[in-house]
């Protein structure tokens, strides 16, 4: 039986990698300036960064509809797949997983397995790649699901934002924490724990926050072989600096991907945000995107 792997647009997979493994990507929706569009197709990272930098402009996101997923599932089945594994953004951060489950129930849960990665960005992306690699090797559906879950469990996502206000507006962090952080001019280091965004450490300057972000990555990696992904939104210089430091300080670094966050996640973290995803799983089977942070349009 052929197993097809699907995901949503918040995985921010390099386009060449998604194409190589035939990974079907279902886009989230982004709403700005009174119009709704598909992430990466109708509304870009630049659109969101520009809107968020303009006073008074609001940006919001919405999940794909069950109908979007149903169309994607039927397309894969019509193309010859026998079973489907659909791996998605944390259910704690979005209703995307729930919409996929609704669509799966209409196709048949003996056909479609929906996996909550309990992560985002390449925390999700590394899990999708692991699933796609297992499927390409001829694994059955249960093995593909297990590969996705194990890869997701082997990732850690850390990031720094310029302001907590965007996370507060989107309901991704508590209002009290956001207000206190803004009042004290705190630059927190955040991470994803059990699918939720949680403060890890509070510092007083952006430079200190970036330094602590790097140190947390170094400490978590230790002497193990790891894959890393550096994300940013409208902050290529900061991402470049992270790349340089991580290459110097992570001895077991086997690959490093760099990509700008897409519109859906970018709307919640805001311009100037940077993050690092650490994966202790197997390396991805494609060439890493490890050039300058500004030269990565295919990974958006």
Automatic annotation (TrEMBL):
Gene3D superfamilies: 3.30.1180.10, 3.40.50.10170. It holds the Pfam family DegV. One of its GO terms (molecular function) is lipid binding. Residues 279-300 are annotated as: Disordered. The keyword Endoplasmic reticulum does not apply. InterPro entries: DegV, DegV_C, DegV_domain_contain. Transmembrane segments: none annotated. Keywords: Lipid-binding. This is DegV family protein with EDD domain. It comes from Blastococcus saxobsidens (strain DD2).
